[in-house]
Specification:
Chain A: This is Multicomponent Na+:H+ antiporter subunit A. Chain A: Its main location: membrane. Chain A: Pfam families: MbhD, MbhE, Proton_antipo_M, Proton_antipo_N. Chain A: Keywords: Antiport, Cell membrane, Hydrogen ion transport, Ion transport, Membrane, Sodium, Sodium transport, Transmembrane, Transmembrane helix, Transport. The structure holds two protein chains of two kinds. The radius of gyration of chain A is 36 Å and the shape is elongated. Helices cover 71% and strands 2% of the residues of chain A. Chain A folds into three domains: 546 residues, no CATH class; 147 residues, Four Helix Bundle (Hemerythrin (Met), subunit A); 61 residues, no CATH class. Chain A contains 37 helices and two strands. In chain A, a hairpin with a 4-residue loop joins β1 and β2. Chain A is mainly α. Chain B is an all-alpha fold. Chain B has one domain: Orthogonal Bundle (Helix Hairpins), CATH 1.10.287. Helix content of chain B is 65%, strand content 0%. Chain B is built from three helices and no strands. In chain B, α1 packs antiparallel against α2 and α2 runs antiparallel to α3. Classes of the chains: A mainly alpha, B mainly alpha. Chains A and B meet through α29, α30, α31, α32 and α33 of A and α1, α2 and α3 of B.
């Protein structure tokens, strides 16, 4: 019995209690201390899976949710899910600890903050641990929603609201596309379980829906992981409180797309389309992000673009790695599988160094009151610890030793060079572009890393430009980034431990072909001779340093880029256009005229009933079982027709009202003919009262005018009313010839013994269906009250006049 | 009988719908009234016509017409009365307050 699914619920359970805790102790103890235990507990629990999973096993547990629909709450943990699970809970615990010092318990609505955060944590855990694609989708959208709530946490700010809306629109759009793709997958394989889908890859690759499903799922992954051109939401998401940016928008949520791509690599990988789309989008995002990051003035904006760029890097590695499936299992494929290993490695490394950098930027913001690079400078003497952490994080991101980023960056270069050395999918011609783009992007990465360190901490300190007097942060705020920075160094010195326990199992999860061999034979080492990768890194450092030195000279180039061509401008235009279009469209049919709405209702009714009558071949006509009709009855029918037509054609109110009254009396006549004495009596009474009421109001109502409407208006009305009449007649005729089951009315014929009543209808009303009648009386009294109020009471405002 | 009743009901529905689609409030009320007559007759006809005596025990007949539709219609008549009354008074009040009974002019205001 595995408690894995319980782990997903722990954050949700905590979230329920947060508001109460906040209410009880909120002013004395920071709510974060309570929340802290949720990620910590799950993290410690997940640790116990490490030995098992490092042997290449996976754990599976199942909780029936909607078994009749085949939707079960199935959890599955393997190497890939474990990495994510530990990142979510590990970084989560650190972020909560950090937020305790970052979020003021006096000023902030902490209960909202932590509820949203726990909601996200649970959703993200569910996303990576779930085996059912529909459950995965639900959690996927839940992360989007909690991200939306967290970005809009300071909802008083316009930027927060806009950023939240943008992220919501883009990620939900992708989520819906992904849902369609997932449903296609389940149609192809006839299962909702990811494990079963992965075992039926042959069915999928030969299916005609292969490409559409792939593109739809990739849309989901690319929007979530902020890949070009969907990346525009991530910089705006920086409006969220910094702990959230560190957690959702760099370490975990934006990696959900990476998770999805990795998870489905063994389904779609091996095809040229997957290879090309994933790796080229990844590379474009990589260079787009790094070039833009250099031009940022806001530290968080810089980190946002650098996150986009790093996500692109991981994505391109996964794309290149997917080629290994094309080769099957062997030496040739393990060269490509190396890229997947590098992707997983960089995933972990990125979470450590970027998490610490975000936290430091939060500290700078918190202690100086600004994140604007132009106003900062010379903080090194004031904030030495923050400076150290920044150096570690930035140099790791830039790919310098002795930090973990160096290792994964080298592995990234290796993978990109692989593409030229053993080309696939027509890579012979333009394969050289891969390492070139990677190299150029790395130069820019180096530049913005240097900006982050030196523009902030070196140079002249200008206290007059800061809102606060800068000083070092409290120790509690420094501990979380210190832990992450510590990991950055530790991983550099012991990469093979990480590789053995995390990367190889994850590799097996992504590429099951290597399961038998227990992964690929690889030794990660900092020094591997004077090879191409090392020369590339040296080139990056030399050229990067050179360009950083002359940054002021060439950075003006950015201002020449036309504003019209930015993705943000395109997004804004699209949004405005869509709002205009939809409001125009809505105004077309939402006219505010009751008749138009009735036309829609009646038209729909005619279409629906008519079509179902037509399609089910329900219409039948057989008059042989009809009751006989005599002259008197025939006369009554004709009289009714005349009365009804009189209502339509009468010019005066009184004629119309009297004609309707006559109709009512004729109906009661029919009740007599059809052996319904009670109905006849009631109808007579009601009709008399109604007629009296009509005549009472008649005095006050305006004279009936001749309808001054255009001919088309009348024609449409006539057509629709004829349609309604015909449909009703057809249905009535068909019903007469269909008896699906025997009448149940025989039960009531025993009414004397059952209810002591000789009048069956009365017995039904007051006894068998007594409750109905009681409520009917209630309706009647409410209507009576309404009538009384409308007549007697004036509007309060009117009386004052 | 059932056939001719079905046609009659169809005509009542046609006229009722046509009246509801016009612009004058009074005609709309009359239309709903006519449609409800149609509905009542429809339910009754669906139960089968003149299949036996009135549903009263202790009378001469031993077979009865279907009693269930009658019970349903009885409820319907009363509810319909309540609705018509409320509707009538509501339109009276509308006319008094707004000075028109033309549905075309009773559209909602822009951007409400």
């Amino acid at each position: 019995m595995s408690w894995l699914y319980l782990m997903i619920f722990i954050p949700f359970i905590f979230a329920i209690f947060v508001p109460f805790i906040y209410k009880l102790f909120g002013t004395r103890i920071h709510t974060g201390w309570f929340v802290f235990f949720a990620p910590l507990a799950v993290f410690l629990y997940l640790l116990k899976y490490i030995p098992m999973i490092s042997k290449g096993e996976s754990v599976h547990s199942k909780l029936a949710w909607m078994p009749s629909l085949g939707i079960n709450f199935t959890t599955n943990i393997d190497g890939l899910a474990l990495i994510f699970g530990l990142l979510i809970t590990g970084v989560g615990a650190l972020v909560v600890l950090y937020s305790i010092y970052y979020m003021s318990k006096e000023r902030e609505a902490l209960h909202n903050f932590y509820v949203y955060m726990l909601l996200f944590m649970g959703a993200m855990l569910g996303l990576v641990l779930s085996d059912n694609i529909l459950v995965l989708y639900v959690f996927w959208e839940l992360t989007s929603i909690s991200s939306f709530l967290l970005i809009a946490y300071w909802y008083q700010r316009k930027g927060s609201r806009n950023g939240a809306q943008k992220s919501m629109l883009i990620t939900i759009f992708g989520g819906l596309a992904m849902l369609a793709g997932l449903i296609m997958l389940s149609m192809m394989t006839d299962t909702y379980s990811i494990r079963e889908i992965l075992s039926k890859v042959d069915l999928i690759t030969s299916h005609s829906l292969f490409i559409p499903a792939m593109i739809l799922i990739l849309l989901g992954a690319f929007t979530k992981s902020a890949q070009f051109p969907f990346s525009i939401w991530l910089p705006d998401a920086m409006e969220a409180p910094t702990p959230i940016s560190a957690y959702l928008h760099s370490a975990t949520m934006v990696k959900a797309g990476i998770y999805l791509v990795a998870r489905f690599t063994s389904v779609f990988g091996g095809s040229a389309e997957w290879f090309w789309i994933v790796s080229s989008i990844g590379l474009i995002t990589l260079i787009y992000g790094s070039i833009n990051a250099v031009n940022q003035k806001d530290l968080k904006g810089l980190l946002a673009y650098s996150t986009i760029s790093q996500l692109g890097l991981i994505m391109s590695l996964l794309g290149v790695g997917s080629a290994s499936i094309y080769f099957g299992y062997g030496d040739e494929s393990s060269v490509y599988a190396f890229a997947v290993l590098a992707a997983m490695f960089h995933l972990i490394n990125h979470s450590t160094f970027k998490g610490s950098l975000f936290m430091v930027v939060g500290i700078i913001d918190h202690e100086t009151g600004t994140r604007d690079i132009r106003r900062l400078g010379g903080l090194i003497s004031l904030m030495p610890i923050s400076f150290t952490i920044t150096v570690i994080g930035s140099f790791s991101m830039a790919g310098l030793p002795p930090f973990n980023g160096f290792l994964s960056k080298e592995m990234f270069f290796t993978s990109m060079i692989t593409v030229i050395e053993s080309p696939v999918f027509g890579m012979e011609s333009i394969g050289l572009l891969f390492p070139i783009i990677a190299w150029v992007a790395s130069i820019f990465t180096f530049i913005y890393c240097m900006i982050l360190v030196f523009k902030t901490f070196l140079g002249k300190h200008r206290p007059e430009k800061l809102d606060k007097v800068a000083h070092e942060a409290p120790i509690g705020m420094l501990i979380p980034p210190m832990i992450l920075a510590f990991l950055v160094i530790v991983i550099f010195f012991f990469p093979n431990v990480v590789s053995e326990y995390f990367l190889q199992p994850a590799l097996i999860a992504v590429l099951p072909g290597f399961a038998a061999a227990g992964g690929i034979d690889v030794e990660i080492s900092a020094w591997h001779g004077w090879n191409t990768e090392l020369f590339m890194t040296i080139g990056v450092i030399v050229l990067g340093a050179f360009m950083y030195y002359y940054l002021r000279k060439w950075s003006r180039i950015y201002s020449y880029y036309p504003q019209v061509l930015t993705l943000n401008n395109f997004y804004n235009q699209l949004l405005a256009g869509m709002e205009k279009l939809s409001s125009k469209l809505t105004k077309q049919y939402m006219t505010g005229f009751v008749r138009d709405y009735l036309v829609y209702i009646f038209t729909f009714m005619i279409a629906l009933l008519g079509c179902s009558l037509w399609l089910s071949k329900g219409f039948s006509f057989n008059a042989t079982n009809d009751a006989p009709i005599n002259l008197f009855e025939g006369g009554a029918i004709v009289a009714m027709l005349i009365a009804a037509l009189t209502v339509v054609f009468s010019k005066s109110r009184i004629t119309a009202i009297i004609a309707v009254g006559a109709l009512g009396y004729l109906v009661s006549l029919f009740f007599v003919i059809f052996r319904a004495p009670d109905l006849a009596l009631t109808q007579l009474v009601v009709e008399t009262v109604t007629a009296a009421l009509f005549l009472l109001c008649f005095y006050h109502l305006p004279e009936l005018r001749k309808e001054k409407s255009k001919v088309p208006f009348k024609v449409v009305n006539l057509l629709i009313s004829l349609g309604v009449g015909v449909i009703v007649t057809l249905i009535a005729l068909s019903v007469n010839n269909h008896r699906l089951f025997e009448s149940i009315s025989y039960f009531y014929e025993d009414s004397y013994t059952l209810a002591g009543a000789k009048n069956i209808v009365n017995a039904i009303l007051v006894d068998f269906r007594g409750l109905d009648t009681m409520l009917e009386i209630l309706v009647l009294s409410i209507a009576g009250l309404g009538v009384y109020t409308l007549i007697k009471l004036q509007l309060a405002g009117r009386e004052k006049k | 009988m059932e056939t001719s009743m079905s046609i009659l009901i169809g005509v009542l529905f046609t006229i009722g719908t046509y009246l509801i689609l016009t612009k004058s409030l009074l005609r709309i009320i009359l239309g709903t009234s006519i449609i409800s007559h149609g509905v009542n007759l429809l339910i009754l006809t669906m139960g089968g016509l003149k299949k036996g005596g009135p549903p009263l025990l202790g009378e001469s007949s031993t077979t009865f017409t279907d009693s269930l539709p009658q019970a349903l219609i009885l409820t319907a008549i009363v509810i319909n009365f309540a609705v018509t009354a409320l509707f009538l008074v509501l339109s009276y009040r509308t006319y008094k307050t707004l000075g028109t009974d033309d549905m075309d002019q009773l559209r909602g205001i822009e951007d409400e």
